[in-house]
């Protein structure tokens, strides 16, 4: 039974600790087409296989740091969110810590400086256009979304493999 995130860290390029942050993960919103016509009573929404609306990663920082400012450089950044997640094995009666890792390739699209006030955090934030998102649980890849390379792999199934084949890729 999943319970809580114990803690997490943000890294750039898998090595440089970015700092204390709060992350808002992207929404995966499938592209759709409305279908209507003879034989259909109204409209039906068709979900387009493996195609998603633009994704955004949000990072909120307590204070301004050299590393958080570096993320506003107008280039691609590889961000790792490494999460220690607490689950409970109800059969064994044990608390289990799972390693969850999200890897993103992003480009900055906004940088909010936050506020400056005595004895308080600045709460600056950034929003980043997501080009790639992979999720690993205990080292096993469970999701890979890569729109630019026609990849949509979820739980070991590559849903866009037949599309790549049909396109001669």
Automatic annotation (TrEMBL):
It comes from the Bacteria. Pfam families: Phage_tube. This is Phage major tail tube protein.
